[in-house]
Amino acid sequence: MAKKTVLSASTTTGDLTLGNFIGAIHNWTQMQEEYSCYYMVADLHSLTVYQDPKELHQRCLSFYAQYLACGLDPQKNVIFLQSHVKEHAELCWALNCITPMGALNRMTQFKEKSQKTREINNGLYSYPVLMAADILLYQADLVPVGEDQKQHLELTRDLAESFNNKYGKAFKIPEPFIGKKGARVMSLQDPTKKMSKSDENPKNFISIIDSPKQITKKIKAAVTDSDPDAKIEYDLKNKEGLANLMTIYSVLSGDSFEKIEKDFEGKMYGHFKVALAELVCSSFQPVQESYAQLMADEAHLVSLMKANAERARERAQITLKDVYSKLGLVL
Ligand code: TYM
């Protein structure tokens, strides 16, 4: 039986965080054995807010290296830059023309982002349509994402169904794949909001390329609660900060919450934070070593990107051609 197809991506803002790693990339690496996977660096998506061109150029290389350093294999998977496959922008336009504005008005991420941005552009508004194009071009069966992308996935499914009904079946209807644990890693300083790589305060997030010293400092300063016993127990309602730290520990170690509670019985928050910092540092050590090696050979990175983009285009062109033909365009 043919392998099922997986597609996922991350936008090139900041550096990948522990949230991206736990909510998404951790699952991507596990899926590469079983599925036919497309992992994309969403550089076009990052243009929805101003990017310094020199920094963006560097960040695209850095993101590609971060993907590989996390264990994604460019021989087993297709790992590419969105801007290298022009079919994304083309399918996005066709989908834009069947997207009701009412659906985009309901996108919570747009509402949140537009509140923080003074200049709201059309790209930010139609961002989920480009995301739908990314997914539908490859006829993805599964899309491994964190919880924050769920609504965008629902829109993708609606657009695919709407196109299929109007013009004939061109798209597979993709399913989101959201991990049971760690689908929403929270900010270290404010556990009521999501850990975000574009957060202005670096204390709120851990980047996968933060030094061990920075990681330890940030975890030690993470907000917990004022339980006088400082008991290590998973209680999402009353101990949000600790629950977040325990989730990170659980995903990285593979230990259940019960095991963590048992192992840290009678210990204080400070003790748990030291253990967590050691676990995060040791988990990221091989990633950071591999990242440094990859970044030292830019020519090799670029040649991998180009070869992978060719493989992505081969698949993308088939879908786009079918869509254009169904729309009645002259091929
Ligand atoms: P991005 O770059 O914000 O995040 C990349 C992935 O990481 C997940 N994630 C988190 N998971 C758990 N806890 C967190 N705090 C956390 N923060 C982020 C996200 O859910 C995502 O899975 N629009 C997308 C990128 C994109 C995409 C796509 C994704 C573009 N095209 C096609 C899937 C399919 C984004 O900005 O993700």
Task: Please write out the topology.
Layout: E1 5-11, H1 18-31, E2 36-42, H2 43-46, H3 53-69, E3 78-81, H4 87-96, H5 101-105, H6 108-116, H7 122-137, E4 142-144, H8 150-167, E5 175-177, H9 212-220, H10 240-253, H11 257-263, H12 269-295, H13 298-327
Parallel strand pairs: 1-2, 2-3, 4-5
Brief description of this entry?
The chain has 331 residues and is mainly α. It has helices at 18-31, 43-46, 53-69, 87-96, 101-105, 108-116, 122-137, 150-167, 212-220, 240-253, 257-263, 269-295, 298-327, and strands at residues 5-11, 36-42, 78-81, 142-144, 175-177.
Strand order of the largest sheet: 1-2-3
| Known CATH architecture of the largest domain | 3-Layer(aba) Sandwich
What percent of the residues sit in helical stretches (DSSP H or I)?
A: 40-55%
The kinds of small molecule bound in this structure are: tryptophanyl-5'AMP
Uncertain parts = none
Could you tell me the CATH topology label of the largest domain: Rossmann fold
As for the number of domains, it is: 2
Based on DSSP secondary structure assignment, what is the total number of beta strands? 5
Report the order of strands and helices: EHEHHEHHHHEHEHHHHH
The level 1 CATH classification of the largest domain is Alpha Beta
The pLDDT mean sits at: 96
| Biggest β-sheet strands, sense, barrel | 3 strands, parallel
- CA distance, first residue to last residue: 32 Å
| Number of helical regions | 13
Structural class: mainly alpha
CATH superfamily of the largest domain: HUPs
What characteristic shape results from the CA principal axes? globular
Radius of gyration: 21 Å
